[in-house]
Amino acid sequence: MSEELGRVRRMWHLLEPLHAVLYYAPEAVAEVAALGYRTDERWPGYFAWRAAPLGEADAGRVADTFHSFSPAMVREYVPAVWSVASPGAVLAARTRAVDRTYRKLLGNAVDGPEPGEAAVLLRRVAKAADTAGRPLAAANAAMPWPEEPHLVLWQAATVLREHRGDGHLAALIGVGLDPVESLVSFAAIGAARPEVFASRGWSDEEWRAARQRLVERGLLTEGGTATGAGRALRADVERRTDEAAAAPWQALGEEERERLVELLGPLWVAAIGSGLLPSETTLGIGKV
Q1: Domain membership flag for residue 287
Q2: How many Å apart are CA 215 and CA 238, to the nearest integer?
Q3: 3-class DSSP state of 216
Q4: Coil, strand or helix: which one is 190?
Q5: Domain annotation covers residue 282
Q6: Rounded to an integer, what distance in angstroms lies between the CA atom of residue 256 and that of residue 251?
Q7: What letters, b where the CB count within 10 A reaches 16 and e where it falls short, cover 185-198?
Q8: Parent domain of 116
Q9: Pick from 135, 122, 24, 42: nearest CA to 81
Q10: CB-based contact 146:95 (threshold 8 Å)
Q11: Does residue 18 belong to any structural domain of this protein?
């Protein structure tokens, strides 16, 4: 990995927790409940929060843009989520949820100069992102920018997170991995245990069939671990993903990027230290 792509990946590692706390924070669960969604599981809120920028998207569009979820699982929640609350109501609640969550995480520091400085820099990067062909990034980039710096920070992190995710999907398609094969091959290199990927709703039969297809391509052993070719293919996916995510960061000079890392560090520590986020996820952060 080149030094530049390494820096791009480091920024992803810093930003992902700042985005993802929305899906786990008690304050966000309270907003979900107030909208009328069930909270005995996280998925009604998750699909509503993440898909709302797309408008009243149907199950097919959500499955295509989210990619890793079983279409059958998506149909359990979409479009039913829009019969509970409109996308506009969900987005308003999402803003409230982020505000409450960040205020709880950061305390008095939320209104300090550091989040404001980070927000200015990160917004510049997000606005530099080319969202053509990147539906989730484009939908979030089209949202009105809030005034409060910590909300700007979350929105910019989300645009860049979805920009990277859309590019990752393109990379997977580019190497011929369908959604379930993407997960099976990722588990095979140790990104996370297969049980973690079960959250995406694929049946045991679908998982086994995908694994067999990858065995036949020489990417997995019969035991389900990655072959050399399988590891090389996944490395190629990550390289393509980093390359596709790199361009917006050229909006900052080297010193500005280092300053942003410095500013985001305490926010990252607060998100990780909150205990809200799972220690093992389907993203494989820290493993690949």
Answers
A1: no
A2: 21
A3: helix
A4: coil
A5: no
A6: 9
A7: bbbbbebbeeebbe
A8: 3-273
A9: 42
A10: yes
A11: yes
In a domain, 162, yes or no: yes
Distance CA 5, CA 193 (A): 26
Q: Distance (Å, rounded) from C-alpha 274 to C-alpha 17?
A: 10
Closest among 225, 259, 283 to 67, alpha carbons compared = 283
Each residue's pLDDT tens digit, 214-261: 999 999 999 999 999 999 999 999 999 999 999 999 999 999 999 999
At 226 the three-state DSSP class reads strand
pLDDT tens-digit series, residues 84-118: 999 999 999 999 999 999 999 999 999 999 999 99
CA distances from residue 199 to 33, 73, 101, 180, 281 in whole angstroms, order as listed: 22, 10, 24, 12, 10
- Please state, in angstroms and rounded to a whole number, the distance separating the CA atoms of residues 137 and 170: 13
Tell me which residue has tokens 């969604």. Answer: 37
pLDDT of residue 5: 86
The DSSP symbol for 36 reads T
| Distance of alpha carbon 19 from alpha carbon 73, whole angstroms | 23
Structural domain total, the chain: 1
pTM for this model (two decimals): 0.95
Helices (H), the chain: 3-20, 26-35, 43-51, 59-66, 71-77, 81-84, 87-106, 113-127, 135-141, 149-174, 179-188, 194-197, 204-216, 228-246, 254-273
Look at residues 24, 40, 44, 41 and name the one whose alpha carbon lies nearest to residue 84.
Answer: 44
CA distance 178 to 189: 17
